[in-house]
């Protein structure tokens, strides 16, 4: 049964014209009404008619990239790699940014309505099983970067986060640090669970064990959270001598808090960031875990092409390697 705009309007308790403004992204709609409409769109699986018609038409030569809004510049570096690879093949790449959790649904509907040739999910959009069913229904290839969706059989590119954090924390321990803090995101996604486990295992391998008072978990990769987390760590009776931050933006906040407390980097506090996007622009430039993004976009294009040619092929799970970039901000602690 085809879902219509009238069905969405009835489910959301509003007029068809209001639904149209949300779908076509023109005109004002209140935040409350927009949320009801987006929820109805997701639950009913609505896709504009032109998407269905496109199944019988030629390819659109459009690739859609879906990114969660974030202060983390890594997401946009990955997006840039995909855009370059798409353009090298004569394709147009459009990027849509979800401003909040749940906002992905309407953007996915829009992309399917544009009959894109493939969708790239960058880092952590919260795509549901129902939305993956839509991808399969319309034979739209999907590649997920940094989040696996193994239960959906999606093609994945996953960063070796566990190994990267375990190595970085291990360097701090080998430098002589025994109180190493971790500032990261809540382990809702696999990526943060892998990073947190890498931290714990590095400590365990050194016989140190995990002191949960040295772990700060937040809701986003913001400088503000990094600063507030570091302030609370410095308030401990025995503060850390080294900090592993799982984004350069978090590390920037660490530096702000350290300077406000009169600490010197790295003389008084060793710091390592993650993603190597902002780290070289900080003062001082800090150690960071960098992703080897060269060739990533081409790999994504190959996976989309393969899936388009063979929708039933077994899913691919490929790794994105990392490298530790040393700039001298992890040194032995003061005695």
UniProtKB/TrEMBL annotation:
Residues 3-57 form the HTH lacI-type domain. GO terms for molecular function: DNA-binding transcription factor activity; transcription cis-regulatory region binding. CDD domains: HTH_LacI, PBP1_LacI_sugar_binding-like. It holds the Pfam family Peripla_BP_3. Keywords: DNA-binding, Transcription, Transcription regulation. Gene3D superfamilies: 3.40.50.2300, lambda repressor-like DNA-binding domains. InterPro entries: HTH_LacI, LacI/GalR-like_sensor, Lambda_DNA-bd_dom_sf, Peripla_BP_I. It comes from the Bacteria. PANTHER family: HTH-TYPE TRANSCRIPTIONAL REGULATOR GALS, LACI-RELATED TRANSCRIPTIONAL REPRESSOR. This is Transcriptional repressor RbsR. It comes from uncultured bacterium Contig13. The lineage of its organism: Bacteria, environmental samples.
């Amino acid at each position: 049964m085809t879902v219509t705009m009238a069905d969405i309007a009835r489910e959301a308790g509003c007029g068809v014209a209001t639904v149209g403004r949300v779908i076509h992204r023109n005109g004002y709609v209140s935040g409350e009404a927009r949320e009801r409409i987006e929820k109805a769109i997701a639950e009913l699986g609505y896709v504009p008619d032109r998407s269905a018609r496109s199944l019988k038409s030629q390819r659109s030569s459009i690739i859609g990239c879906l990114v969660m809004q974030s202060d983390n510049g890594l997401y946009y570096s990955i997006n840039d790699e995909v855009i370059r690879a798409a353009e090298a093949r004569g394709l147009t790449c459009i990027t849509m940014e979800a401003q909040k959790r749940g906002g992905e649904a309407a953007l996915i509907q829009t992309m399917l309505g544009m009959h894109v040739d493939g969708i790239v999910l960058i880092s952590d959009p919260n795509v549901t099983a129902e939305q993956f069913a839509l991808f399969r229904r319309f034979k739209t290839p999907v590649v997920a970067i940094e989040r696996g969706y193994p239960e959906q059989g999606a093609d994945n590119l996953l960063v070796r986060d566990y190994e990267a954090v375990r190595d970085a924390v291990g360097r701090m321990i080998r430098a002589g640090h025994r109180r190493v803090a971790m500032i990261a995101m809540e382990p809702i996604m696999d990526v943060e669970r892998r990073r947190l486990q890498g931290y714990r295992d590095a400590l365990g391998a050194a016989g140190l064990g995990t002191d949960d008072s040295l772990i700060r978990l937040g809701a986003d990769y913001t400088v503000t959270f990094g600063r507030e987390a570091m302030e609370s760590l410095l308030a401990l009776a025995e503060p850390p001598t080294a900090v592993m931050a799982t984004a350069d933006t978090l590390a920037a906040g660490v530096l702000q808090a350290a300077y406000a407390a009169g600490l010197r980097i790295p003389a008084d506090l060793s710091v390592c960031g993650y993603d190597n996007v902002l780290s070289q622009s900080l003062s001082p430039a800090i150690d960071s875990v960098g992703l080897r993004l060269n060739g990533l976009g081409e790999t994504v294009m190959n996976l989309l092409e393969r899936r388009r040619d063979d929708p039933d092929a077994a899913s691919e799970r490929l790794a994105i390697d990392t490298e530790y970039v040393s700039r001298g901000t992890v040194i032995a602690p003061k005695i």
